Task: structure prediction
Amino acid sequence: MGKRGILVIAHGSSKPEWVQLVDEAVSRVEVDLPVATGFLEMVEGRTILNGIRALETAGVTEIIAVPLFVSSGSTHIVEIGYYLGLVSEPQIETEGERLPIKAQVRMTDAMDDHPLIAEILLERARELSEQPQQEALLLVGHGSELPGFKEKWENSMNSLARQLQEKMGFRKTACATLHPDSVREKAEALRRTFSRVIVLPLFLSEGYFTRKVVPGRLQGLDVQYSGKTYLPHPLISRWIASVVKEQKAAAENPTIPSV
Result:
């Protein structure tokens, strides 16, 4: 068994504060392994290949890649898998090429409906809710219009909604996406029946979508929306450690399914 290391892969942003939130979350991951972070774009000198080279220079021969993405329905997941040599042919068009990697690579799932992610949303919901038994909850994600990707978004969002329903007892839960755009329609439908509607965005970090796009869809509607995202929250660091542990177990026991 070779030396293992972790490569956390995030999308990237031109906003330094966005990158800082990711770096802070990664720095708090409690694992006894080398850790590096790579970004798909917009962060100069910190590409995925830069992260891989840093780990290989440290003697790592087995890399556990952790995609810091909200949903496995993101087309970036397939893109990353192709770059890492885990996907033979990407289902989408990409300008990137396979990366020259010496180490063996395994990749975890995205955040999806993981229980720790549900706990973050539970905390966000409790901050806005007063009497959940009389309220409706609407989860809003980016979504996708592409076959296969669309269903992955919907499945994980519906699972998160069920988990919050079970723990808080909302009168009704629903999910909406920006692609295809169903936010306004779903919010209006809930508002016609319920006097109080809680809206939670399923996004890694605050930015254009949570500050402009989602509020724009909700404009004029009396709903409860704070715009709080997954980061900053300590459970993101715990999620990274958790999926790494699961992937290590899968590597050591071939009978356990892995990505």
